[in-house]
Design brief:
The chain is 50% helix and 11% strand. By secondary structure, the chain is an alpha/beta fold.
């Protein structure tokens, strides 16, 4: 059973801090007929998955953490930037600077866009459709969020696949490498082209077979 949960523009509590989103994710887990789950998350979603595994280890049997965001010391500058953005956000419309920021931060990498044309355009349209008030919440949430302390990651006891993109400066590969060194049963897999992306599917299958689907 695969459950895809997207917190964007749909947070029940309005708390978009990574640790705060654990509450909602935990409620989803409790609603499933499963003893343990495999959690996956991209960027800020990897932070929520980490916090959930640390706070509710009895519910998690594996982690898939994709393009982890800036964390720890390198997150300080990001937090300051996000707070400035949050303070300039408006509840009734998207300011021009936010539109430009959204345009500059179109996620999938170039190789993915080449394989699946118009993906970026569809993401752009989706992001532009969000309630303008969402952007204050998401950037404020990012401004007050960080990964758990390093010592908490070293206590994790579940198989963990960490996926990094060496060509994505917004998600520093150094953070992914340090996570790999901290989490005992972890593997780091780098994706820099479409061939790597296809091989990632095999890595995920290996993890699923290792822990049991």
């Amino acid at each position: 059973q695969l459950i895809r949960y997207n917190a964007c523009d749909k947070s029940i509590t309005g708390d978009y801090s990574w640790s705060g989103l654990v509450t909602e994710l935990n409620e989803i887990i409790d609603s499933l007929d499963a003893e343990k789950v495999i959690l996956g998350g991209v960027s800020m979603g990897s932070g929520t998955a980490l916090y959930t595994a640390i706070r509710h280890p009895e519910k998690v049997k594996a982690l898939i953490l994709v393009t982890p965001p800036p964390a720890w010391e390198v997150r300080v500058a990001v937090q300051k930037t996000y707070e400035r953005i949050a303070l300039k956000a408006r509840p009734d419309h998207l300011p021009d600077f936010l539109k430009r920021l959204i345009l500059l931060n179109q996620d999938p990498p170039e190789f993915f866009e080449q394989q699946f044309p118009e993906t970026r355009q569809k993401l752009l349209e989706l992001r532009m459709s969000f309630d303008p008030a969402y952007y204050y919440s998401i950037y404020h949430g990012g401004a007050i969020s960080d990964f758990p302390e390093r010592k908490e990651l070293s206590k994790l006891k579940v198989p963990t696949l960490i996926v990094g993109d060496p060509n994505d400066p917004g998600h520093p590969i150094e953070v992914a490498r340090e996570m790999n060194s901290l989490i005992p049963d972890s593997e780091l897999f780098l994706v820099s082209d479409y061939s790597d992306f296809l091989n990632l599917q095999l890595k995920v299958s290996e993890l699923l077979n290792k822990v049991g689907k």
